[in-house]
Amino acid sequence: MACPHLDYRESDGERSFDTARAFCTVTDEFVQPVHADICNERYGLDPEADCEVFRADAGLDWDE
Length: 64
What we know:
The chain is of the alpha+beta class. Helices cover 28% and strands 27% of the residues. The protein has one domain (6-58). It has three helices and three strands; from the N terminus they run βββααα. Strand 2 and strand 3 (29-30) form a beta hairpin. The radius of gyration is 13 Å and the shape is globular.
């Protein structure tokens, strides 16, 4: 499953892009393609267990 917090957007509200760019809804910013690939389903990561950004935003420690 792909990260439910990763969204692909074709604009940033002010300008349009030729190709959609990865946007992290947890950090509320566009992320680098390599980071988006890691968040993608092919790596099988679970945001609640594996994503430090999601866990920090949710106030979770690593032992929870």
